[in-house]
Amino acid sequence: MDYIRHQIKDIQIAEIKSEHVVIASIEDATNLIGNSYYQGFDGIIVPEKSISPDFFDLKTGLAGEILQKFSNYRMRLVIAGDFSQYTSSKSLRDFIHECNKGKQVGFVASIEEGIALLEG
User: Fold this and answer.
1) Is the pTM of this model over 0.90?
2) Which of 17, 30, 47, 65 is geometrically suited to a Cys-Cys bond with 2, CB 3.0 to 4.6 A?
3) Where are the domains positioned within the chain?
């Protein structure tokens, strides 16, 4: 896993680059938050493909627990990718819609949109 640093004004954004799943458990999320905070990042952009598919199955509870960690530690999170493969789940569509109303967590189509979201 690599961090790509984006600095927009006084905001430090970490773009996660990995060919593997980076977040598959609450422990993974907590470690990512800690490492990012230690390196001075204010927000994190994670590609959808770097997150376990279990996250997107709301029945597992993994999404709620992970997003709660990000909220508790006040680390903003953006998940960038194509979520159309999950459109059969109305509850997930609603979950994404509700997350996008707030400022803590966002679901976007691209890294560029994620940077703009964290900047604003």
Assistant:
1) yes
2) 17
3) 6-119
How far apart (Å, rounded) are the C-alpha atoms in residues 74 and 54? Answer: 23
- What's the whole-number mean pLDDT along residues 84-89? 79
User: Taking 90 as the threshold, does the pLDDT of residue 120 lie above it?
Assistant: no
The CATH code that applies to domain 6-119 is 3.30.750
For every residue of 35-89, DSSP letters joined together read: HHHHTT-SEEEEEGGGB-GGGG-GGG-HHHHHHHHHHHTT-EEEEES--GGGTT-
Token pair for residue 13? 């954004």
pLDDT average, residue stretch 29-49 = 96
Helix-then-strand count for the chain, H and E: 4, 5
Read off the tokens for 19. 């060919």
Q: Which amino acid is at 57?
A: D
